[in-house]
């Protein structure tokens, strides 16, 4: 913590101190009493203590409140002494600031509930408005915006005057508007300006703020609020279409990822692989194992766990795929229905094997930091994990397409699927190509498992929930055509997401299934049907 | 010569099958009712219910074998017809509860009372009459199969495509019946039955009668299937199975044949479901699960696709194994065995138990005949026959 | 000649072998008869494979553990207890089949089992017909009181209503999202809650009800809807009756879309220690659950139980949860009832059970009521980062379980009373047995 920051920090506290209507004299007595209340292990006492400490102006207020938020504030219920454990491990007495060697044995962390967590956030918002970090200032302004606490107004005014950063300034202006809107003695003009600022913000929080206003407004303001609400609503309406489209793309990418391996094994080779879902599951469990190893051995690498898991999952699932092809499927070529039954049996065995090895319960696969959270694009929230999965899916698709098109193996694969005998006559080792193709399809399913572990349960039942959807996508898109799978997946995803708000999740899904059944009647070979002699084979 | 031998041998196994089923259908109920409880000769009631369940599964297996084994249509959604038949019967049984439900409502079943249905939905009308329910057991699955088949066969959806859309069909029905708003009791399904035709469903006598009835239905289904497959119609079906395009070019309306046999098979599955429900005491949407339909296909594959006796036998064998293994210390490994069974049967016994047995007997007969011939030749008595 | 000799030997040995086997079988039969007189058989009817194995396997282990402990204390009435375990494989008709097998073939005195409502409904007719006893340990939708079933899990008034009360009072929640999986427990619970909220003056437009299928995994639209619903300027909370597997993607989506427990808290009735063991709990911090037991509750009974359980399972990290406690209480009550009437005869035990008291693990004493439900304390816990719960509120005393909800039109006049009225659906308006219509 730089000296500069501490100076500015003190300045804030002074500002709060003088501006607050009820300036608490910074005497030792009341502050110490307030701090001691943390030791009572009673939520309403803790609440009072937070309020008293935050407005005390005592330099220890910030360390105490932030320690409370992080669970670093502990109290001894017998002596009523309260301790702050610093982020660096140093312990001080919260009431006096004196250093302490170690915590008493019966000291326990001060407990919070949601109400108190909100109080802490609001208090910290007031305390960090002048933090040197712009991101923190914006966050502080946000929490003031939500709490619209009148006491923060003077600080905001002061901060706004000094602020140079544009984004922070906007956030401060909005926070100020929120306070004024709820301040009972603000002038009509101030309120009208505030409504305009909030209308311009135009998101759901602005909406929440406006709709939460009481009915005792001056008529002019009330009218402005009504029009602002209407305008935000129509704005949000438009964005909700964009949002549905994005959700559709995101669902489509998950469907595509799950189906793309099947598009190889079923679409290109014609093998109905009911154990495809289990390849996805194996990929997910590979991710779990990789993360376990990283957690115990190299915790620093956690953010790279997925990058490590992707090639491993490809190899593991691919190798199992090759084994399956060599052990079972190659005896069943030309008998698609028997293949279906054998691979269904295989899927049961794989599921139970995983259940025996890893237990029947869900396994924990964590999200690396770059996969967590979201950002706002206009009025829609885009979560990073969905965005990465979409990018990842498209990358896999492009690589696969390029591989089939430009590599020798790809050429051989296409040759074998188009005309097996001819390919064999040309000297291609067809059985080797079969094994590799099946391995490729399974490996890609394994990769899909890595991505799906980020949004779904990692349990032995993981694969089953995707198998029917995957087949629908491939059949709908047209067997033997990767582009068909792409278009099929995104069509189904988007259709599903536009139906869901209207019909509900279940009816939407039923409607999609019925539509697929009807569509297959119309085009029995899917959207992008293969033409020519290969069709009858 | 060979076809004649084939029909005759099949005739024999069919006769044995029919005699065994009929004997069981008479002896088991008699033993259950007449012998004193606890005696070694008495079949306990829980076994009667169990065997009754197997008989229903055997009917389902026959219906699948009829279309898969003889016409090459692999339906992975036959459980849907079974469950629809079951629901039709379940609705009749629900209406028979009358005011004996926990809420004491004389018209509405319990689940409708707590979901605040103001009155009985129209599609529940008529199910208080047994004859209506019995007709519906045939009509509902039959009609669905007819519509589905009419669309699918006319647009020449075949092979794996057909298998996958039948699966989509049963999956869509599964989701629909899970919905509580659909009016069929949601996940809990229909249960807590009291009477069937005035008899207490839980009485030993009713159970014995239901078992006998299931055996009778099995025999009838078997005879109908036999009649179909041995007729000229059956020959066309086999032709469709082996070479669909060629059959079409010969001038047969392939769609009509397929549609007929598909609808017939769905009706049989519906009857199986209707007999199943009063014996197990519950019908719920999980019967629509795609996995169940696939499992039923496996029974047929295990017993022998294209042999009617095999299909019924396969259903009984696999289900007995399931009952047996889910009680012992082997319970957690049950899925390993089921899965391995699927794989091994398709790899090693593509003709199933009965099919393999028939083939083995055929080949032994052929060898014996050849031996006899060569022996005769060596003795210089017989004349060499021309090669067939 | 030679072949004939071998044949003879073979026949001879086969005969001897047969005789030996027969002897062995008889001996075994005699032995098992003798054994049957010494032990009391206890049936365990929990799925060990299929989708429900996730939850039910633990309960099977719990009963085996309790039987083990009881046998160490000398069993019941001087006889050892013997567990009979079957696997109904998450298949509802199989539940009924296995229940029948347990009662008629294995002759068990009592059955501990079932998790889902549909499995209970499936076995109910069997227990009534064969007159046996079932202890059912899971929180459920209520609207049932059967002579042969004892419900040791929570009825809706022992879980859902206190949780809503807490949110209303402490968090000042004004708008409610009732989100659930589409099956009977969420349907009924939400119906009861809706009626209850309306009786507290909550308007229809402030209640949003949403149902999703089992195992729903794409929560984007629904979470966005909840967010939108929560932005109406009133404090909003989600009451979740979402089942098992669908919870993980739901909480992940909530976390990713930036909805924190301080903004919109989620109170769940089906998420316990066992479920949290498979989730990264950091994004869930502060979300709530309502149960009658938490592993983190400090009481001497609980600490002793956890220690013994972890020693029995040889896993120092093995968690405990609410349905396990229900089995602990139910088992204890059954033992006490059997010892009271000195018999395992179902009729005698069923009559003896109401009024029996047993210590629960949270420091109180639960009592079996005439409606076959028990009294329980209700706790609200917040999820902590370590996958445990921090109790933030509890009812002052024990709450009696209502078999019939007072909030629903169909059941508000009904009571279950197997002591005085001998009836599970007694109508207090008409003073008749037989439901609302009588």
**Number of separate helices of chain A:** 21
* Radius of gyration of chain A, whole Å: 31 Å
CATH class assignment of chain B: Mainly Alpha
Strand content of chain B: under 5%
> Do you know the CATH architecture of chain B?
Orthogonal Bundle
Envelope shape of chain B: globular
Please name the CATH topology of the largest domain in chain A.
Answer: ABC transporter involved in vitamin B12 uptake, BtuC
CATH fold title of chain B = ABC transporter involved in vitamin B12 uptake, BtuC
List keywords for this structure.
heterotrimer; A: 537 residues; mainly alpha; ABC transporter involved in vitamin B12 uptake, BtuC; 3 domains; five-stranded antiparallel sheet; two-stranded antiparallel ribbon; disordered C terminus; C: 438 residues; Rossmann fold; seven-stranded mixed sheet; 19 strands; globular; disordered N terminus
Descriptive notes:
The complex is a heterotrimer of chains A (537), B (388) and C (438). In chain A, α8 packs across α9. In chain A, 67% of the residues lie in helices and 4% in strands. In chain A, a hairpin with a 2-residue loop joins β6 (374-377) and β7 (380-383). Chain A is built from 21 helices and 7 strands. Chain A is mostly helical. The termini of chain A are far apart. Chain A has 3 domains: 3-127, no CATH class; 134-217, no CATH class; 239-536, Orthogonal Bundle (ABC transporter involved in vitamin B12 uptake, BtuC). Chain A has a 5-stranded antiparallel beta sheet. In chain A, strands 6-7 form a two-stranded antiparallel ribbon. Chain A is elongated. Chain A has helices at residues 3-19, 28-37, 43-54, 61-69, 114-127, 134-147, 153-162, 166-182, 188-201, 204-211, 219-268, 276-296, 305-327, 336-358, 384-406, 408-418, 420-425, 430-452, 464-477, 482-503, 505-522, and strands spanning 73-76, 81-85, 91-93, 99-100, 108-109, 374-377, 380-383. Chain B is mainly alpha-helical and 388 residues long. Chain B has a single domain (2-368), classed as Orthogonal Bundle (ABC transporter involved in vitamin B12 uptake, BtuC), CATH 1.10.3470. In chain B, a hairpin with a 2-residue loop joins β2 and β3 (199-200). The longest helix of chain B is centred in the N-terminal third of the chain and has 33 residues, at 2-34. Chain B is globular. Chain C has 438 residues and is of the alpha/beta class. Chain C has a domain at 160-268: Rossmann fold. In chain C, the strands form 5 sheets. A 7-stranded mixed beta sheet of chain C has the order 7-6-8-9-10-14-15, sandwiched between helices. Chain C has a 5-stranded parallel beta sheet with strand order 2-1-3-4-5, sandwiched between helices. The radius of gyration of chain C is 25 Å and the shape is globular. Chains in contact: A-B, A-C, B-C. At the A-B interface, α14, α19 and α21 of A face α5, α6, α11 and α13 of B.
């Amino acid at each position: 913590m730089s000296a500069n920051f501490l100076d500015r920090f003190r300045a804030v506290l002074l500002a709060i101190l003088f501006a607050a209507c009820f300036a608490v004299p910074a005497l030792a007595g009341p502050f110490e009493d307030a701090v001691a209340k943390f030791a009572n292990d009673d939520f309403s006492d803790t609440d009072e203590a937070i309020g008293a400490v935050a407005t005390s102006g005592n330099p220890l207020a910030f360390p105490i409140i932030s320690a409370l938020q992080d669970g670093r504030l502990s109290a001894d219920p017998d002596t009523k002494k309260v301790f702050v454990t610093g982020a660096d491990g140093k312990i001080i007495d919260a009431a006096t600031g004196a250093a302490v060697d170690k915590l008493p044995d019966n000291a326990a962390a001060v407990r919070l509930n949601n109400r108190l967590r909100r109080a802490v956030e609001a208090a910290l918002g007031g305390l960090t408005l002048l933090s040197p970090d712009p991101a923190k200032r914006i966050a502080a302004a946000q929490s003031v915006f939500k709490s619209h606490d009148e006491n923060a107004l003077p600080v905001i005014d002061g901060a706004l005057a000094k602020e140079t950063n544009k984004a922070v300034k906007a956030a401060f202006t909005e926070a100020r508007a929120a306070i004024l809107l709820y301040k009972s003695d603000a002038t009509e003009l101030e309120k009208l300006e505030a409504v305009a600022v909030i209308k311009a913000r135009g998101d759901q929080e602005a909406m929440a703020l406006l709709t939460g206003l009481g009915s005792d407004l001056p008529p002019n303001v009330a009218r402005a609020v009504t029009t602002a609400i209407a305008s935000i609503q129509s704005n949000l309406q438009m964005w909700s279409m964009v949002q549905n489209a994005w959700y559709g793309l995101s669902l489509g990418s998950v469907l595509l990822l799950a189906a793309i391996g099947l598009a190889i094994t079923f679409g290109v080779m014609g093998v109905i692989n009911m154990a495809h879902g289990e390849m996805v599951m194996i990929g997910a469990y590979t991710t779990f194992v990789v993360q376990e190893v990283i957690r115990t051995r190299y915790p620093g690498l956690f953010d790279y766990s997925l990058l490590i898991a992707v090639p491993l999952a490809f190899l593991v699932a691919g190798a199992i795929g090759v084994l399956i092809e060599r052990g079972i499927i190659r005896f069943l070529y030309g008998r698609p229905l028997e293949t279906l039954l054998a691979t269904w049996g295989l899927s049961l065995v794989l599921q139970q094997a995983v259940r025996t090895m890893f237990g029947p319960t869900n396994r924990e696969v964590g999200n690396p930091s770059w996969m967590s959270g979201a950002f706002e694009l206009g009025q829609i929230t885009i979560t990073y994990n969905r965005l990465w999965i979409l990018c990842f899916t498209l990358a896999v698709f492009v690589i696969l397409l390029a591989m089939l098109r430009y590599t020798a193996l790809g050429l051989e694969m296409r040759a074998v699927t188009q005309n097996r005998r001819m390919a064999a006559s040309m000297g291609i080792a067809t059985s080797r190509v079969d094994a590799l193709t099946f391995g490729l399809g399974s490996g890609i399913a394994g990769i899909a498992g890595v991505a799906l572990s980020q949004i779904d349960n990692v349990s032995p039942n993981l694969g089953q929930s995707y198998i029917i959807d995957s087949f629908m996508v491939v059949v709908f898109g047209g067997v033997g055509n990767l582009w068909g799978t792409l278009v099929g997946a995104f069509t189904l995803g988007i259709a599903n997401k536009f139906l869901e708000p209207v019909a509900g999740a279940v009816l939407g899904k039923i409607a999609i299934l019925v539509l697929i059944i009807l569509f297959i009647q119309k085009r029995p070979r899917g959207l992008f049907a293969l033409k020519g002699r290969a069709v009858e084979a | 010569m060979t076809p004649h031998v084939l029909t005759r041998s099949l005739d024999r196994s069919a006769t044995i099958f029919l005699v065994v089923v009929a004997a069981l259908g008479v002896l088991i109920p008699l033993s259950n009712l007449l012998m004193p409880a606890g005696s070694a000769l008495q079949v306990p009631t829980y076994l009667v219910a169990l065997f009754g369940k197997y008989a229903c599964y055997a009917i389902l297996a026959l219906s699948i074998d009829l279309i898969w084994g003889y016409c090459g249509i692999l339906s992975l959604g036959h459980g849907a017809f079974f469950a629809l038949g079951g629901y039709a019967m379940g609705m009749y049984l629900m209406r028979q509860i009358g005011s004996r439900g926990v809420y004491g409502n004389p018209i509405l079943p319990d689940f409708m009372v707590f979901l605040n249905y103001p009155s009985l939905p129209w599609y529940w009308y008529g199910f208080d009459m047994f004859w209506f329910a019995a007709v519906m057991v045939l009509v509902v699955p039959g009609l669905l199969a007819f519509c589905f088949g009419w669309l699918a066969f006319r647009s020449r959806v075949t092979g794996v495509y057909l298998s996958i859309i039948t699966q989509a069909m049963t999956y869509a029905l599964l989701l629909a019946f899970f919905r509580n708003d659909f009016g069929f009791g949601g996940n809990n399904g229909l249960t807590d039955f009291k009477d069937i035709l005035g008899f207490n469903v839980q009485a030993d006598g009713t159970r014995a009668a239901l078992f006998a009835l299931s055996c009778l239905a099995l025999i009838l289904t078997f005879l109908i299937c036999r009649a179909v497959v041995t007729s000229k119609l059956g020959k066309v079906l086999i032709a469709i199975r082996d070479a669909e395009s060629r059959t079409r070019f010969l001038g047969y309306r392939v769609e009509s044949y397929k549609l007929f046999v598909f609808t017939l098979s769905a009706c049989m599955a519906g009857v199986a479901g209707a007999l199943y429900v009063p014996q197990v005491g519950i019908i719920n949407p999980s019967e629509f699960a795609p996995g169940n339909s696939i499992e039923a296909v496996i029974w047929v594959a295990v017993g022998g696709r294209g042999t009617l006796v095999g299909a019924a036998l396969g259903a009984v064998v696999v289900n007995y194994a399931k009952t047996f293994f889910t009680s012992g210390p082997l319970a957690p490994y049950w899925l390993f065995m089921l899965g391995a069974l699927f794989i091994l049967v398709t790899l090693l016994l593509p003709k199933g138990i009965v099919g393999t047995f028939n083939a083995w007997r055929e080949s032994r007969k052929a060898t014996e005949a050849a031996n006899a011939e060569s022996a005769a030749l060596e003795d210089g008595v017989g004349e060499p026959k021309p090669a067939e | 000649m030679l072949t004939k000799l071998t044949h003879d030997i073979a026949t001879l040995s086969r005969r001897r072998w047969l005789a030996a086997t027969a002897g062995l079988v008889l001996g075994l039969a005699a032995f098992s008869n003798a054994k049957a007189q010494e032990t009391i058989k206890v049936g365990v009817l929990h799925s060990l494979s299929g989708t429900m194995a996730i939850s039910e396997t633990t309960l099977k282990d719990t009963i085996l553990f309790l039987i083990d402990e009881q046998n160490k204390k000398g069993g019941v009435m001087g006889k050892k207890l013997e567990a009979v375990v079957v696997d109904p494989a998450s298949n509802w008709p199989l539940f009924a089949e296995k229940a029948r097998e347990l009662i008629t073939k294995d002759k068990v005195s009592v059955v501990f089992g079932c998790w889902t409502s549909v499995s209970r409904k499936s076995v109910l007719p069997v227990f009534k017909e064969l007159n046996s006893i079932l202890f059912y340990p899971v929180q459920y939708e209520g609207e049932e009181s059967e002579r042969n079933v004892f419900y040791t899990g929570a009825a809706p008034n022992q879980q859902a209503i206190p949780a809503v009360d807490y949110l209303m009072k402490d968090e000042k929640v004004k708008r409610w999202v009732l989100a659930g999986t589409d099956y009977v427990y969420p349907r009924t619970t939400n119906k009861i809650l809706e009626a209850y909220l309306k009786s507290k003056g909550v308007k229809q437009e402030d209640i949003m009800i949403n149902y999703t299928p089992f195992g729903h995994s794409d929560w984007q639209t629904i979470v966005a809807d909840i967010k939108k619903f929560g932005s109406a300027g009133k404090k909003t909370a989600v009451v979740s009756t979402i089942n098992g597997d669908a919870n993980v993607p739901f909480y992940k989506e909530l976390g990713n879309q930036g909805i924190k427990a301080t903004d919109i808290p989620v109170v769940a009735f089906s998420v316990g220690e066992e479920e949290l063991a498979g989730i990264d709990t950091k994004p869930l911090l502060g979300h709530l659950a309502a149960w009658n037991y938490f592993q983190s509750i400090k009481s001497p009974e609980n600490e002793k139980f956890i220690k013994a359980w972890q020693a029995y399972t040889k896993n120092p990290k093995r968690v405990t949860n609410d349905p396990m406690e229900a089995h602990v209480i139910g088992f204890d009550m059954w033992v006490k009832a059997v010892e009271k009437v000195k018999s395992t005869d179902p009729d005698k035990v069923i009559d003896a059970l109401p009024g029996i008291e047993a210590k629960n693990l949270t420091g109180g004493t639960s009592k079996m009521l005439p409606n076959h439900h028990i009294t329980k304390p209700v706790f609200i816990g917040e999820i902590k980062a370590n996958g445990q719960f921090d109790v933030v509120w509890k009812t002052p005393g024990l709450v009696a379980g209502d078999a019939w909800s007072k909030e629903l039109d169909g059941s508000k006049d009904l009571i279950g009373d197997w002591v005085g009225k001998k009836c599970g659906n007694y109508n207090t308006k008409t003073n008749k047995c037989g439901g609302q219509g009588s």
